[in-house]
Write a structure and sequence with these properties.
Chain B: This is Oligosaccharyltransferase complex subunit ostc-like. The complex is a heterodimer. Chain A contains 34 helices and eleven strands. By secondary structure, chain A is mainly alpha-helical. Among the domains of chain A are: 123 residues; 192 residues, Rossmann fold (3-Layer(aba) Sandwich). Helices cover 51% and strands 5% of the residues of chain B. Chain B has a two-stranded antiparallel sheet. The longest helix of chain B is centred in the last third of the chain and has 29 residues. The chains are: A mainly alpha, B mainly alpha.
Chain lengths: 783, 173
């Protein structure tokens, strides 16, 4: 039942409010409502009514997708959320201020001190360029908006555009009814909202739009065989490559889809044209992005596309030979030889390429998708990110709700009516659901597929039910109606007995379906409001009387850094906060969220987990002036550095074996109270977090020094800092900044009892940690 | 290609009755090992690979979906216990806890499997409803399909809501 033009007599279009054949145009309801206006101007034909309904639904869905993402802007203010978006914001600011050439060749010395970072060559520019273009367009129209507003609202704008693409995609795969339902579902689906709220200025906001656009254009190209659509999909792919590292999913799914089509015997000229044009042009365009470079011909993750490309040429060649040869047996033999030779040559080429090192193996990030246990054992940085954890059922339920029921039903409908387009959507759905099971973050990639397939189920079911509900009307009409309705399914038109029961049952089921969909809408709005609209940089909690208390400590600390430290000061913190410190505090950091250099992060981790004097040497070698830690003991904030501390130990221990994780645990348990390990009680992170905390009473009825995030009283309350001094603690003690003291100015006479890095007279001064943890140094004379 | 030599092993000099093969190595093979070796007469047939029917594939897909949505990857990596336990403070006895409290992204194995089952049940219910409407079957079969389908969907939805309310006490409040 495709939504194309059907015979006028007795045709039933979904959503049409005309159940009588158009030949008998009875006065419409409109004329009853507006008696004074001329009937003729308002009497729209069925097709026009349908168009009006479709367009109005799409407009409403477009607006809905935008406004449902505005919760945090209305509750707090228009600001950038989380950590990564601050880097994107900083680069966009740079782009709008200095221009594209400076941006493309930017070397940033303010992060990863002293290494610096080639920003122009290590980012995906799509998001920044998009926001800059929108900003320049608005400026051209004389709307004087700050770039921050544009950045905050880019993601909701592109979410609205995604709903439009989903409509067209649904129309391509099934029919326009399914397209409308898909647009409505994807507008409010929490899986997508989680990464595209207003303020979440991250690559995924734009990338999902590009992903769905590329897939839609490719499926359209395969369906029509037109070169124009295929080239358009190549440009869509280019946009995706420029926007997000997840483009690897496209460049592996499309070849897999082509392979499945070849296996199921659906090779056709349309497929040949579509894939070849898209692959060649897409690959050439993708190489324009410096970060991607030549990976399309060098990296193992992209080899599947190349393999399928050559396989398609083999298929075309065989087709041509078959066309030339008239002898089938000869052709069979030729076929066997060619296919064997082609596969053998391909395997040898792949082997030679991999062995010689030209083709690099799969990188850890993507390899851990195929073998989920890999990251846990080998790459602690990847395993430590909370978004990379595998998915539990409740995350699925939270993000999809009833779509989880409709997904298998939609798959059934797709399998019932296999075509090139439905095979694609089935493959997209299955692969993306598997990857969503491996990593929570990838639920985002699965969301469009789940919404589309569920839309197919909803549309097909509701269509069946409405047909049953209207069967009575049609059967009791004059005879010529029955002739046309028999095309659709004879069983429905011949339900003479128990008709009222059937009809009532169908109406009841329709009401049930609408009830389920309304519960879906309620769920999505609740989840968006409660779970996904928090700007992690501003914390909110419920006070004692139910009022909302806001903690703005992060921005307070960054602003203090910006105003009260010398401009060339260097700040050491855990890598989570690097982007925010550089963007808002405007100071140089040692490590940030890019995590491209594991050894550098391990050095910082080692410094945080060592005793104060060892850490002081590391900090002196890195020129650190300030240390920033996040502490949640006063507020009960659980994402602080003490809870992340074990990851610092693991990552540091991965590079420097002197740091051993069991030293910080007691019987395998991580504790900070009196029974904690002695190394834990004296390491730098502990001291910096709990300095002066032992004097503070945090909760009524508990002793001073009660840590509300861990729920215990801390073990070491009497903390003395020797090489650092406290510079700033925010009002709720969430962010604490310490200044690293310069080495002792005075040339001290050193005896055997005054040892330490500031003792210049020692012949082998510099690294005296080999003497162990003797700490006899005096504080006399240190200015 | 191995079945061809058996017809000509006795008549090494004569050409085979089948069409001329374009294989370049085949004449060499005919001379070298098979000039003096006689392969036995076997009745081997190359297994013909037929594509499975769509519904078979759909059944496999449903099984995979059940496993993924139950959180099997989470179970393999994080290795949670099958069912949790808590100690009753008053009596000291150990009570089982089915739903892992406190976090959205965490589960015990049994909890994941039962929720996954509910999701698949709901999907199968919608499929049964469609089977009830669209086929030329006996009317009683259609009625039973329809009832089973509706019951499945209702049960699956109610149970899923119950599970999520137990797991996240603040749900929809």
């Amino acid at each position: 039942m495709v939504g194309k033009a059907e015979p006028v007599n007795g045709s039933v279009k979904s959503g049409s409010n005309q159940s009588i054949p158009a030949a008998m145009q009875s006065p419409l309801k409109k004329s009853d409502l507006i008696p004074n206006l001329s009937l003729k101007t308002l009497k729209l034909k069925t097709k026009q009514q349908e168009l009006l309904i479709r367009v109005s639904i799409l407009c409403l869905v477009y607006v809905l997708a935008f406004i449902t993402r505005l919760f945090s802007v209305l509750r707090y203010e228009s600001m950038i959320h989380e950590f990564d978006p601050y880097f994107n914001y900083r680069t966009t600011l740079f782009l709008t201020e200095k221009g594209f050439y400076e941006f493309w060749n930017w070397f940033d010395s303010e992060s990863w001190y002293p290494l610096g970072r080639i920003i122009g060559g290590t980012l995906y520019p799509g998001l920044m360029v998009t926001a800059a273009i929108i900003y320049w367009l608005l400026r051209f129209l004389r709307f004087a908006i700050h770039i921050r507003e544009v950045c905050v609202l880019t993601a909701p704008f592109f979410a609205s555009n995604t709903t439009l693409v989903a409509y067209f995609f649904g129309k391509e795969v099934w029919d326009s009814g399914a397209g409308l339902v898909a647009a409505a579902l994807i507008a409010i689906c929490p899986g997508y909202i989680s990464r595209s709220v207003a303020g979440s200025y991250d690559n995924e906001g734009v990338a999902i739009f590009a992903l769905l656009l590329t897939f839609y254009l490719f499926v359209k190209a395969v369906n029509t065989g037109s070169l124009a659509w295929a080239l358009a999909s190549a440009f869509g792919y280019f946009y995706m490559v420029s926007a997000w590292g997840g483009y690897v999913f496209i460049i592996n799914l499309i070849p897999l889809y082509v392979l499945v089509l070849l296996i199921t015997g659906r090779y056709s000229m349309r497929l040949y044209v579509a894939y070849n044009s898209m692959y060649v042009l897409g690959m050439l365009l993708a190489m324009q992005i410096r970060f991607v470079g030549f990976q399309h011909v060098q990296s193992g993750e992209h080899m599947a596309a190349m393999g399928v490309f050559f396989l398609l040429q083999v298929f075309f060649f065989l087709d041509w030979v078959k066309h030339l040869l008239s002898d089938t047996k000869l052709f069979q033999a030729f076929l066997r030889i060619t296919v064997t030779t082609a596969i053998a040559v391909g395997a040898i080429a792949l082997g030679v390429g991999t062995a010689s090192g030209y083709i690099s193996p799969w990188t850890g990030r993507f390899y851990s998708l195929l073998d989920p246990t890999y990251a846990k054992d080998h790459i602690p940085i990847i395993a430590s990110v909370s978004e990379h954890q595998p998915t539990a059922w409740s995350s699925f339920m939270f993000d999809f709700h009833i779509l989880l029921f409709l997904f298998p039903a939609g798959l059934y409908f797709c399998f019932k009516r296999l075509s090139d387009a439905t095979i694609f959507i089935v493959m997209y759905g299955l692969t993306s659901i598997y990857f969503a099971g491996v990593m929570v973050r990838l639920i985002l990639v699965a969301t469009p597929a789940v919404c589309l397939i569920s839309a197919i189920a909803v549309s097909a079911t509701i269509k069946n039910l409405t047909l049953v509900a209207r069967a009575k009307n049609k059967v009791t009409q004059t005879g010529f109606v029955r002739g046309s309705s028999s095309l659709k399914g004879s069983s429905k038109a011949s339900l003479d007995q128990s008709q009222p029961f059937q009809r009532n049952g169908a109406i009841a089921l329709l009401l049930g379906a609408f009830y389920l969909l309304s519960k879906y809408a309620t769920h999505c709005t609740w989840v968006t409001s409660e779970a996904y609209s928090s700007p992690s940089i501003v914390l909110a909690a419920r006070g004692a009387h139910g009022n909302r208390v806001i903690f703005d400590d992060y921005r307070e600390a960054y602003f203090w850094l910006r105003k009260n430290t010398p401009p060339d000061a260097k700040v050491m913190s855990w890598w989570d906060y690097g982007y925010q410190i550089t963007a808002m505090g405007n100071r140089t950091v040692i490590v940030d969220n890019n995590t491209w250099n594991n050894t550098h992060i391990a050095t910082v981790g080692r410094a945080m987990s060592s005793y104060e004097n060892e850490a002081y040497e590391i900090m002196r070698s890195l020129d650190v002036d300030y240390v920033l830690v996040v502490f949640g003991g006063v507020t009960g904030y659980s994402s602080d550095d003490i809870n992340k501390f074990l990851w610092m130990v693991r990552i540091g221990g991965g590079v420097f074996p002197v740091i051993k994780e069991p030293d910080y645990l007691v019987n395998g348990e991580y504790r900070v109270d009196k029974g904690a390990a002695p190394k834990m009680l004296n390491c730098l992170m502990y001291k910096l977090s709990y300095y002066r905390f032992g004097e503070l009473t945090t909760e009524y009825g508990k002793p001073p020094g009660y840590d509300r995030a861990r729920g215990v009283e801390i073990g070491n309350k009497d903390i003395k800092l020797e090489y650092l001094e406290e510079a700033f603690t925010t009002s709720n003690w969430i962010v604490r900044i310490y200044k690293v003291k310069p080495p002792n100015n005075r040339w001290e006479r050193c005896s055997i009892f005054t040892l330490g890095p500031h003792c210049a007279a020692l012949p082998f001064s510099g690294n005296v940690s080999w003497l162990g943890r003797i700490n006899f140094s005096t504080n006399a004379g240190i200015g | 290609m191995r079945s061809k030599p058996e017809t000509q092993s006795h008549t090494a000099a004569t050409e085979p009755l089948s069409s001329t093969s374009m294989d370049p190595i085949f004449p060499l093979l005919r001379i070298l090992p098979f000039g003096f070796l006689r392969p036995p007469k076997l009745r081997l047939k190359l297994p013909t690979l037929t594509l499975p029917s769509p519904m078979t594939v759909y059944a496999l897909v449903l099984l995979t979906y059940f496993m993924v949505v139950s959180g099997i990857v989470y179970d393999v990596i994080v290795e949670p216990p099958g069912i949790g336990s808590t100690q009753d403070r008053a009596t000291g006895s150990v009570r089982p806890v089915v739903f892992l409290p406190g976090r959205v992204n965490g589960q015990y194995i049994v909890e994941g499997l039962s929720s996954g089952f509910m999701f698949v049940l709901g999907g199968v219910g919608v499929v049964l409803m469609d089977l009830a409407l669209d086929r030329n079957r006996a009317k009683s079969v259609k009625v039973s399909y329809a009832t089973a389908g509706i019951a499945s969907v209702v049960i699956a939805y109610v149970m899923s809501m119950l599970f999520i309310r137990i797991k996240i006490p603040a749900y929809l409040r």
